[in-house]
Amino acid sequence: MPLKSKDMIELSDPRVAQIGHPAPPWMVNYADLMTELVCFYLILYAMSAALSKPMQEAKKEVEETMKQEEVAGDVKMTKDGLVISLEEQGYFVFFKSGSAELSDHMIKILDELAPTFTKLAAKRHDMIVEGHTDDVPIKSLIFASNWELSTARATNVVQYLLQKHNYPPQHIAAIGYGENKGLPRAPDEDLDAWRSRNRRVVFLIKNPTPDPTHPDEKSSKDEAASKDKEKHKE
């Protein structure tokens, strides 16, 4: 005789869906509810950066700096974090042609943005600096391709922030894409202008990841654990 749990209902109960028979009506509503909850949490995850007050403040500060310095580009929130794209425009160049050396204009921009970046790093936001080039091939004694050039440019930006602004090295990294992530060109856009836009530096400031070793988080976890113990005692 099969064992029956105390709280288990009989298989003959109409609430149990038999093999080959449609599910009971309540199960359809339950499945819909679970699907909606999953969608809700996915939306919350995607909006986590947009709902972050430090990220919102940083976005506003960067936009003001770009406007004051007349820097072309874009600042937007994504599910991954804050994306800042600085694009060359006219005589506002970031690097010398075929070189990874920072221009005076780029140094000035970095000096203006560094305080904002540093504040986010203090809140454990990691930043990825991306280097991008146009589609004009390069082959010199220093750089064999645009891969090397874009990586060297991103690395020099990182090195400048580390050396001149004491940026925490554990929260920053450099990566180069060459010409392989080019911006789309409009049908009526000038070729030189399009190539200028593609010679850009992108800063991806990620959403912070929980750090269990951080004092604030550790104390909050300890406090929550002590509250649970008190409840169990009661």
What is the topology?
Blueprint: H1 25-46, H2 53-68, E1 72-77, E2 81-87, H3 104-122, E3 127-132, H4 146-165, E4 172-178, H5 191-198, E5 200-206, H6 215-233
Report strand %.
5-15%
Largest sheet: 5 strands, mixed
Which architecture of the largest domain does the CATH hierarchy give at level 2?
A: 2-Layer Sandwich
Q: Low-confidence runs (pLDDT<50, min 5 residues)?
A: 217-224
- Give the total of beta strands: 5
Class of the largest domain in CATH? Answer: Alpha Beta
What's the SSE pattern? HHEEHEHEHEH
Going by CATH, the homologous superfamily of the largest domain would be OmpA-like domain
Helical run tally: 6
Computed over alpha carbons, the radius of gyration is: 27 Å
Features:
single chain, 234 residues, alpha+beta, 60s Ribosomal Protein L30, Chain: A, 2 domains, 6 helices
Verbal overview:
- The chain is of the alpha+beta class.
- The protein has a five-stranded mixed beta sheet with strand order 1-2-5-3-4.
- Helix 2 packs antiparallel against helix 3 and helix 3 packs across helix 4.
- About 3% of the residues have low confidence.
